[in-house]
Amino acid sequence: MRELSAFGLSGIISADDMRVIDKNADGWGISALQRMESAGTVLASVVRDEHPDRVAILCGTGNNAGDGLCAARHLANEMEVLVFCAGEPKTPEARAQLAALTACPVTIMDAETPDLFASDVIVDALLGTGARFPLKEPYAGLVARMNASSARIIACDVPTPGCRADRIAAFHLAKTHAAEVYNIGIPIAAEVFCGEGDLLLVPKKPADSHKGSGGTVLVVGGGPYQGAPFLAGVAALRAGADIVRVASPTNGFMPDIIHDRLSGDHICEAHRDHLISLAENADAVVCGPGLGGSADSLTVAAEVVGAARKAVVDADLLRSPLPRAASETIYTPHPGEFARAFGTVPESLVKRGEAVRTAASATGGVIILKGKVDIISDGSRVRFNRTGASGMTTGGTGDVLAGCTGGLLARMQAMHAACAAAYAVGVTGETVCEELGDGLLATDLLRHLAHTLYTEL
């Protein structure tokens, strides 16, 4: 694991990335309550550095508040501690911290008093990384009073929007400029390996959704391999796409898919204008499943990718020069296809990670190098996915991954879509293999994929 630390994050990270890391830490045995206890201990140490006689800790209702409540407990016997609670804690971890705090010699209040803002130090534990302007009451008023006070203000992880901060105690990684970063025991694996946290970023359809709001996906492929584009198409539907069209010179009928039957036995120049028109009107295009290696098929398919806003490039289309969509492109090679497009695949995991990062940087897209451990990179960050099972060596599972990736790409940023798809398809394979073992079919994955993506968290 030590060698993979080179792929860890640094600098300022987004709220989404921190949500992923937090949830992934659960999978490595570091619970939210453990992380909160570590963060609260660190926060108490930062307060001690200021040598205050009185500290006021202003808490909201989320886990940011839980960090503040924990810090109050650690400081309770050392100085005068005033704790303001803006409301009842909403998370079980924050509720546990408040329950423990009630057994300590601190003053807990739910109404503002002058003493709060006359403290030597004020800890801003009101709102976390998801807070946005405009603030509602009581938060807007509390921020105004903090800003007007003469106290030193210490922000817990991030300042509440609009609040001045003399110090920012950030946990694990910085979420804003000028933060002091403190380790709270989250393992590096929570950053570099895909996990359940990656599924948190998969958008759920709101109650007022309508047909098409989940995205439209075009799958272009088929000819020599009849089933591949249909496997990809159903996988895109299972990944949440609302409308999927399969354009293929292959006969087939699936009631959930719009089948655009192309003339002839392979994709060729005669289909070019029609396919480009379809690509221009799709949210994402999956191109390559079952395509075959004929020169005219590859030429037309590459032009279709070039006309797309977003695209997943798979199978025979993975060869130099690689086609690229206008906005975001994800490439899904197995080792042989990677070698054909980019050169030799190194043996060691670390060197593979570096090779995939270099290749992704050169293409300007995201690469999923499929294998026992999948490697995913956008040219900057590198992630590893360990999910999957031996029964997934059967034909068609790669088409399911391509389709799932396309279905997510229609509504997500490319790197997030790639990580979520690789993790979800692998977990689905593990689930199916427990039941069927080596008799797994690619179509078996389709029955369980949506459950993995949308109901297991």
List keywords for this structure.
457 residues; alpha/beta; Rossmann fold; UDP-N-acetylmuramoyl-L-alanine:D-glutamate ligase; 2 domains; seven-stranded parallel β-sheet; 16 helices; 40% helix; isomerase; multifunctional enzyme; lyase; CARKD; NADP
Short précis:
It contains 16 helices and 16 strands.
Strand content range: 15-25%
CATH-level-4 superfamily name of the largest domain:
Ribokinase
What percentage of residues falls in helices of 4 or more residues? Answer: 25-40%
Structural class: alpha/beta
Molecular shape: elongated
Write out the strand line-up for the largest beta sheet, numbering strands in chain order. Answer: 10-9-8-11-12-13-14-15-16
Terminal residue distance: 26 Å
Rounded mean pLDDT is: 95
Integer count of domains: 2
Question: How many β-strands, per DSSP?
Answer: 16
CATH topology of the largest domain, anyone? UDP-N-acetylmuramoyl-L-alanine:D-glutamate ligase
> Regions with pLDDT < 50 over 5+ consecutive residues?
none
- Biggest β-sheet strands, sense, barrel: 9 strands, mixed
Could you explain how this protein is built, in words?
The chain has 16 helices and 16 strands. With 457 residues, it is an alpha/beta fold. The chain has 2 domains: 2-192, 3-Layer(aba) Sandwich (Rossmann fold), CATH 3.40.50; 196-454, 3-Layer(aba) Sandwich (UDP-N-acetylmuramoyl-L-alanine:D-glutamate ligase). The chain has a 9-stranded mixed sheet with strand order 10-9-8-11-12-13-14-15-16, sandwiched between helices. Strands 3-2-1-4-5-6-7 form a 7-stranded parallel sheet. Helix 3 runs parallel beside helix 4 (92-101). The mean pLDDT is 95. It is an enzyme of class 4 (lyase).
